Amino acid sequence: MSGQIRGIFFILWLCAALLLCPFAHAKTVKISDLQVTSRQEDMLLFLNVDGAFDKQLNEAVHNGVPAIFSFIIELSLDQGIFRSKTILELSVTHTLKYNAMKNNYTVRRSWEDNRPLTTDVYEDAKKWMSEIENLRLLPLSHLQKGERYMVRSKVMLDKATLPFLNYIFFFISLWDFESDWQYYRFIY
Amino acid sequence: MIDLPKPPKNNRYKKPVPTLPKAEQRRRKREYIIAGIVVALIVLISYAILKGLHFGDDMAVSNSIMIFILININLLLIILLIFLVIRNLVKIIYERKRKVEGSRLRTKLVAAFISLTLLPTIVLFVFSLHFITSSIEFWFRIPIDQSLTNALAVGRNIYTLVEENNTFFLDKAAYQIATRDLLSPKNEKELATYVQVVQRAFNLNVVEVYNARFKRLAFSVTPSLPADVIEPADPGTLQKGLYNGEDTWSTSEHTAAGEMIRNIAAIPFGAKEDNIKGFILISVLLPPDLVRNLASITQGFEEYQQTKMLKYPIRLTYYITLTIVALLVLFCAVWFGMYLSRRVTVPIMELAEGTRRVAGGDLTYHITVAADDEIKTLVDSFNKMTRDLRFSRKELEVYTKKLFDQNIEIEERRRYMEIVLDNVSTGVISIDARGLVTTINHSAEKMLNLRSADIIRKSYKNILENQHADLAEEIYDRFWKKHEESLLKTLTMTVSGKSRVFMVNFNALKDDAGRQIGMVMVFDDMTELEKAQRMAAWREVARRIAHEVKNPLTPISLSAQRLWRKYKDAIKDPVFEECTRTIIDHTELIRNLVNEFASFARFPAANPVPCELPPIISETVALYREGHPNITFEIRDSGDIPVLKLDRQQIKQTLINLIDNAIAAIRQEGTIIIEASHDPGKNTVTLTVTDTGTGISDMEKPFMFEPDFTTKKTGMGLGLAIVSTIISDHKGKIHAEDNVPHGARFVIELPVAPPSEN
């Protein structure tokens, strides 16, 4: 077939791709205030999540959908792109569940043994979900003085929690998000 | 004659030409395979997805990812299918635009298929959409929504009720404890008692009192509950509501015995942080059934809400699925339409092409079509037809070649016969059944001085008309009426003023069935032969006579001489002398005549030597000039007479004889012209003796050169015979013609000897 036909097809493809674009929107979720400190003999992590709760997630939460934030945290020796050695890799989850009967919110954080934090105030629940404080990473003795270290973290909405008709189409994503990696470098 | 088309250069049976170029075939095959795999995969994956969606709520991540992948693949395959189908559709339209053969029928078939499937598909689609929409709407009817909300409200009311009750009791109990100062260590026992009383009186499950330092001072548990079910509340719980400025706050715990709702208030009731002396807890246990029901109400409500939330996406999903299925159906219809149309149009186009090629003469065209219906029958018939045509043409060619070869052979034979006829010395004239001359050979033309163009297709009577009209009648009578086979005749005809004698053999030509289809005349010029025969006969006679006559002459002469000698003195009578003299003289005369005869019969052979002709002429003419003043002698010499091989004496004798005849022919006055000329073309020298005498009649001409022909009163008539003999000894020719206006001309042609001989 001639180049004309190929051209027509390409245009068709382009239109299809463009038409389907609106369905694939990305949320601007990011981790802010990522930092580590030391206290006594431990390295502690602090971070906040911004922009995770949009209208759709709020609606989902208030309809009883449990929202699970999965945080991935990595500590590595910063020796350039190809020579970083990962020292620690861990993942924590925050789960928020709204109880329609009692009209309260329960947040469980895996790094706090999933102890339920209940509140009637949605803002409190959101705040608990969006922050990690004093998360013990590892003893300071595991670090070497004078070395450059890098901590990076990202958060995503765990897709496993979506309800029974969880996956409509891959281009109609309702709540899922994934933030970019956030980096924090320091020299011990 | 049938005009056959030209056979192809390569006449052997070719291998069947494939209908499409190989590349196109492979591509088509690839397409079909891809399409088939795509459709199968779509079906399988869709089934898997549908199955997969019935998993439980706790789905493993891997499963979800798997489904995610499957759905994506499914979509890609569908898009691929769409691509293939649209590509084919566009191709059809393109072909139609470019008026490729077969495209119109194909377009029609595909369009028909599409419209056939489009209408019901659209109808089904619209109805299904409407049905889905209304069904979904039905599921989310307000009554369901309302009843769930109401149920939730009922559940909430239960909790509210419990809390309100507990708040009431907390208020009363906190007041009492505060006013009675039961929190002080000294009132420990009263506190315990009071707590027990409150628990029993208000039928509460657990009542607990804590001091400001979050230490439990007293508690009472309903007997039905084991005491260790209740753990002391932690400070966080106790203080929880303080920061919010609430009078009471609650927690709930799920235990094996049910849900424990713990309401907490400060002592005194509603006190702020600084004034708090203690805390009081009242716990109410909701039975497990109730808890379960409440939980299920919650769950149901939540699920309903979530489902409601997904209403739009679900509908969209259904729409999309339906659309995809409709499109699938449509594309399958298109595909099938194209496939079917191809099955129909390709053979038809091939047949059209085949008929064109066959009309153009190419009988090796073979249609290979994979079909199993009437089209195959048609194609087979076509192939058989071309095959039969091809074989017939081969046979025709073979026969044509044979015919051609035979024609050539016949033509060669004919030409050979023509050559033979043309070169044979016998004249051959053939006449067809209608009496028209069909062929005349070269010898006949020459002999009769005719041109074939003048005589062909004319009646044979034209040849014979002037001289032998009666013969023509006789021929007609014998051959056409009486159907005789043959006739032999000797004819004398004048040809070009000369008399010729022909021996003519007439033969009837009959075909295999015995019908007369014509006649053939075969004739030879016997003139020279007759002349020679006559000459030989005369010679023989002359020899015999000479011999027989001469014998008695000698004795007679001798006797007479003897008598004269004996009695010349005795007899003085002049009569005696006269008579004896007469006897001797006449005997001598007879001897001379006989000698002349003998000389004719035994004429000395010519002895030609190279010599010039003009001097001979001059010498000979000189003999006559003086003696014949009334005759003008003219000598014409062209001046280029070459040297000839001549017997001088004999040529002289020839000239003498001819001039004698010329003189004899002229009565009073006249002219005799002796002319010599050279013809380089014929390589001859022509010597003519022309007189203005009485001439020679046609009757006399044939016999002029024979012995005993004379118009003179005296002489033997051998003069011209001798001349003829001399000339023929010199390998020349002589003939006589009429001179204009009167007189005769004798023309002698003598060959010029080749230069080597001279």
Please specify the SSE layout and strand pairing.
The complex is a heterodimer of chains A (188) and B (758).
Chain A (H helix, E strand, L loop, with lengths): L2 H18 L9 E10 L2 E9 L4 H8 L4 E11 L7 E15 L4 E6 L6 E4 L2 H9 E9 L8 E10 L24 E6 L1
Antiparallel strand pairs in A: 1-2, 2-7, 3-4, 3-8, 4-5, 5-6, 8-9
Chain B lengths: L21 H31 L8 H37 L5 H37 L2 H39 L7 H14 L4 E6 L4 E6 L13 H5 L8 E8 L2 E10 L10 E9 L1 H22 L1 H50 L13 H50 L3 E6 L4 E4 L1 H7 L3 H4 L5 H21 L4 E10 L2 E13 L5 E10 L1 H41 L6 H28 L7 E3 L1 H13 L5 E7 L6 E3 L1 H18 L4 E10 L4 E8 L27 H11 L3 E6 L5 E8 L7
Helix pairs in contact in B: 1-2, 2-3, 2-8, 3-8, 4-7, 8-9, 13-14, 15-16, 16-17
Number of domains of chain B: 5
Sheet/helix structural class of chain B: alpha+beta
Report the portion of residues of chain A in β strands: 35-45%
Q: What is the overall shape of chain A?
A: flat
* Unreliable residue runs of chain A: 20-25, 164-172
Spatial order of the strands forming the largest sheet of chain B: 2-1-5-4-3
Order of helices and strands of chain A: HEEHEEEEHEEE
Distance between the first and last residues' Cα of chain B: 64 Å
Number of domains of chain A: 1
- Percentage of residues assigned to helices of chain A: 10-25%
Distance between the termini of chain A: 65 Å
Instruction: Compute the average pLDDT of chain A.
Output: 79
Report the C-alpha radius of gyration of chain B, rounded: 77 Å
**How can the largest sheet of chain B be summarized?**
5 strands, antiparallel
Q: Give a count of the beta strands of chain A, DSSP E runs of length 2 or more.
A: 9
> How many strands, what sense, and barrel or not for the largest sheet of chain A?
6 strands, antiparallel
Greatest chain-chain interface?
A-B, 33 and 46 residues
Number of DSSP-assigned strands of chain B:
17
| Helical stretch tally of chain A | 3
What is the chains' assembly state?
Answer: heterodimer
Query: Which consecutive residue ranges of chain B, at least 5 long each, have pLDDT under 50?
Result: 11-16, 55-59
